[in-house]
Write a structure and sequence with these properties.
Number of strands: 10
Structural class: alpha+beta
Largest sheet: 7 strands, mixed
Helix content: 10-25%
């Protein structure tokens, strides 16, 4: 069963924290603050835009709002964080970080910015085995850098 959107967003942010090995006070949820162009910021000033998929497969396209695209363009410490596998029973939970996504991904612009090639871009990805869900990762994750 698919959790409500707020729960999925909370679970996705927790997966990002686990992948980065950060405590809640080290990476803050800033989704409620409009116009920032990111969903989270860490204590070093790195911004993270969170995109999520309930299915096990990482989506190959994500769409950024104008504020998110501006933040990605203007901030050298911007990461696109794509989380998939949030629905119980879909397989592994994946957290994929793409640094400088406007350079690493193909762009398609139609008012919003759609980035393609998410699955193929060089990224740091963490995979959490299904036994660690639904409360999200306990401690064990496999990290791999692709490309």
């Amino acid at each position: 069963m698919l959790p409500p959107v707020d729960d999925r967003e909370r679970l996705a942010l927790e997966a990002i924290r686990q992948a980065l090995r950060m405590d809640p006070d080290e990476i803050k949820d800033v989704r409620a603050r409009h116009g920032i162009g990111a969903d989270a910021v860490d204590e070093l000033g790195h911004f993270y835009e969170l995109k999520m998929a309930s299915s096990a497969q990482i989506p190959n396209e994500v769409t950024l709002t104008r504020a998110q695209a501006d933040r990605a363009q203007d901030d050298p410490d911007f990461f696109l964080a794509v989380v998939s596998g949030l629905e119980a029973g879909t397989g592994d939970l994946h957290v994929r970080f793409i640094f400088d996504p406007l350079t690493r991904l193909a762009l398609r612009i139609k008012g919003e910015v759609t980035l393609t090639g998410v699955r193929d871009a060089e990224a740091l990805e963490y995979v959490f085995r299904p036994r660690l869900k639904p409360g999200l990762p306990a401690t064990r994750a496999e990290a791999r850098k692709e490309h």
